[in-house]
Write a structure and sequence with these properties.
By secondary structure, the chain is mostly beta strands. The protein is built from two helices and five strands. Strands 3-4-5 form a three-stranded antiparallel sheet, covered by helices on one side. Strands 1-2 form a two-stranded antiparallel ribbon.
């Protein structure tokens, strides 16, 4: 997770602080303001799912991978292209569509 801007919990002001890349974490939710604009993310340890952190930012770029690696009946592939579920793929199992599922919530 690359992180640059952050919002101070005390002043509410955005400050520029370069965090670099945060490894072994995954975004689990998007934060929104009272007008529905995305203004941050919630991330947690991966794969354990603990230690949630909230990062607010003036803008969020949400780049996700594909969803061809997950094949179950609850997968995006099954929902949108059930005709492809039984075909071979070069997608890794990590191409699960988790980011797209999070984005669908908004």
């Amino acid at each position: 997770i690359p992180c640059v801007p952050w919002q101070s919990q005390t002043s509410g002001q955005y400050q520029r602080r370069v965090h670099g890349i945060i490894n072994k974490k995954r975004v689990c939710d998007l934060l929104q303001d009272n007008q529905g604009r995305v203004n941050g993310v919630v991330y947690e340890d991966f794969p354990s799912g603990g230690n949630r952190k909230y990062v607010r930012a003036p803008a969020v770029i949400f780049a996700t991978g594909g969803f061809g690696g997950r094949r179950g009946k609850d997968s995006l592939l099954y929902r949108y292209r059930p005709d492809l579920v039984d075909l071979p793929t070069s997608n890794p199992s990590s191409a699960s569509g988790d980011g797209m599922v999070i984005a669908e919530k908004i």
